[in-house]
Amino acid sequence: MNTMATLVGRRAIIDYGRKPLNLVMLVAVPVVLVFVWGPSMADFSKLLGGTGNRGQLEAATAGWAAAALAGLAGFFQVTGSRSADRRLAAAVGRSGPVVAGRLGASFGLALVAAAGGLIALAARAGITDPARAVAATVVIAIIYLSLGVLVATVVRSEMNGALLVTLAWVFDVFFGPALGPASTTMTRVFPLHFPTLVLIGQASGHGGPLGDVGWSMAWAVGLSVLAVVRLSSMNRPARAPGALKAGAATHRAPTPAPASALRPAIAPSSKRPSMPVNSPLDVAATARLAPSSDDAPVSARLTAVLRAGMREYRRNRVLWAILVVVPAVFIAMAVLVTVDKPGPVAVVEGARHFTAFLSERRMHAATMVPVTAAFLAGLTGLFVVTGSAAGDRRLVLAGMRPREVLAGRLGVITTATVVATAIAVAVSGVWYPPRQWLVFIGANLLIALTYAMIGTLIGPLTGRLGGLYLILLLAFIDVGLGQNIMIPNGPPAWGAFLPARGASRVMIDGAFTAHFDQVGYLLLGLAWLAAFTTVTAVVFRRRTAAARA
Amino acid sequence: MDKQTALATNDRPSPPPITPVTPVQPAVGLEAKGITKSYRRGVWPRHRQIPVLRGADLMVGAGEVVGLVGENGSGKSTFMKILVGALAPDSGQVQVSGRIGYCPQEPVLYERLTCDEHLELFGVAYGMDTQAIRVAADGLYATLGFDRWRAARVEELSGGTRAKLNLALALLADPEVLLLDEPYAGFDWDTYLRFWDLTAERRAAGRSVVVISHFVTDQERFDRLVELRDGRTVSR
């Protein structure tokens, strides 16, 4: 057993190292979180009711990095080896050695993840209490490693599972005690609540008899046990009821049916539907792959693609759940944890520029809408394009025109984007209705559609997983930081060069003023959308069109 | 049959000079000449060119069933993709008379669509009307024996049933040229025999059929065998 477990563990580590994306993430995640996020999140933390203590935030980033890496490592360790591990367990006769090896490798990766975060932290700001930092970071890594393994044993789709782990991490980080207030009751149920407090050296005051360390250990041990149980159950070789003893089994080879007994069930050739032989069979290279003039009208083909696309998307229940739940929960939590005090915001009313003082909770309710809508729309574009790429190429080879397939896909993406945006707007509007509903909805839709196009462009370049993180990063940097009116002194100057600038200004106008005054920014937003849509169309055509067309 | 000919060329920069292919006779379903293709592998500075096809030729007449064989990695699927138009050659020409029905090696399907929905979608792509799609689909379900799975989503299908749907999409419109890349991988014996019945029927109707296989156990079912060896086609 020991040899097998060691072998499985060693091979798993080697396999992890052979994937370039893993190595890139191992370096990039700690560097981005500790070096880039840490310093810039202090102001953001104050908005969420946190202390804004830079030292504490920087310490927390090491834990966040470890959690992100460990969660995904655990998840992909299991999904990438599920079938092979089952087969191996069947060959061994029991799941123990395989599970031990797989979990050993995962634990090793969790340690590597924790080390990555800590090294980055040491290089960035130094570590004042090494023992506490190391212990808390390792506990955080184990919690997310177990979470990743658990999700992998439950969710069949690799993409949906990765998305769930990522969303759990997003909630844990953005509503955790390092960024927001440590005392909020509803965020105490998050797995990283107590370990993060231990990591940043802040007492919760609500740990009870177990204390913060005890709760942290309870999360780590509890999730680890669940992960082991689920993984063992998944890999356990199936035993047939009343299995025969060795040597008692009999096997009867299937008797092939005689060929003469087979009857071609297809209708006689003359009655079968066939391409009209007298129809032009197309002279040029493009034409031989395109439908003839007798074919179904464009509207019929477009309808067929759109209907099929909607059916496919509608049946991905996890995605629909995410489209509905994420805006509702994310915006509601953002509103609830924000300290309700007045803050300045630059607005234009009747060509008059002035600074208004508005409730920061109200501002946060409005600004979270485009962040959420952009992220979800980007994901929709990413998923739709990557999920249908091979099939779409085959459809085009069968005679569908690339522009018809593209129009169908864009129809699906637009529908899902409208749904996600509508829910985000509705949740925000329930608390704080915008002054101009139409302008507010239109601006958010503009940002969301722009990010949907970005998702369709990123997908073929990075694949689904890479695209997921890139969309998350882009939406947060552009819409969340680059256009954030709640940052002291207003949105940063570099935000003017990012896609959401124009539509964000329109969104502010719609949310907080009585009249529309941002024609220039509206045109800027539309220009970004037009540019991305054009590039999307060109790229889609190049990817799906027949190679010699 | 008043078939016209399709001429396909690639626009890659500076390909080796190719002698223009003279228009094929109507009896020729598919002709490929001088096809070359190489793949770039690895990341700089370790990237390298791996030549796969070094001037492969193929001619398939109407009513002919040709087997394309070769070792693993000999370039059969690459050649097939080039014939179909799914992949651009580095150089060479392909001529096809009529339409192509393509069955890729790995089933290319939409995971959350049912068999019926696939056949409907591809039927529309082929330009068939609703009635024609229904009749053709019913025939293929019966012949390939997966009628009870018509309302099941692809994600619920076994590998063998996916392979049947994969093949059915290629056969749906009864195209003039059938390019089938290991179509019977995963079939049971019964379906395997039915597949050959279908192929014989297509041949009798004057269709051109190319079937890729690692090895050919039923040589008598083919009119001709062509082997890909060192990137070139050799008659067997």
Structural features, described:
The complex is a heterodimer of chains A (549) and B (236). Chain A has helices spanning 2-17, 20-47, 54-79, 82-92, 96-124, 130-154, 158-174, 193-200, 211-235, 285-289, 298-314, 317-337, 360-398, 402-431, 437-482, 501-512, 519-544, and strands spanning 342-349, 352-359. Chain A is mainly alpha-helical. Chain A folds into two domains: 2-235; 298-544, no CATH class. In chain A, strands 1-2 form a two-stranded antiparallel ribbon. In chain A, helix 3 packs parallel to helix 6 and helix 16 packs across helix 17. The longest helix of chain A has 46 residues, at 437-482. The radius of gyration of chain A is 27 Å and the shape is globular. The termini of chain A are far apart. Chain B has two domains: 5-98 and 217-235, no CATH class; 115-213, 3-Layer(aba) Sandwich (Rossmann fold). Chain B has helices at 76-84, 115-126, 130-144, 159-171, 189-204, and strands spanning 5-8, 28-41, 48-61, 65-69, 91-97, 100-103, 177-181, 208-213, 224-229, 232-235. In chain B, helix 5 links the parallel strand 7 (177-181) and strand 8. Chain B starts with a strand and ends with a strand. At the A-B interface, helix 10, helix 11 and helix 13 of A face strand 1, helix 1, strand 5, helix 2 and helix 3 of B.
What are the defining features of this structure?
heterodimer, A: 549 residues, mainly alpha, 2 domains, two-stranded antiparallel ribbon, 69% helix, B: alpha/beta, Rossmann fold, six-stranded mixed sheet, four-stranded antiparallel sheet, 5 helices, 10 strands, disordered N terminus
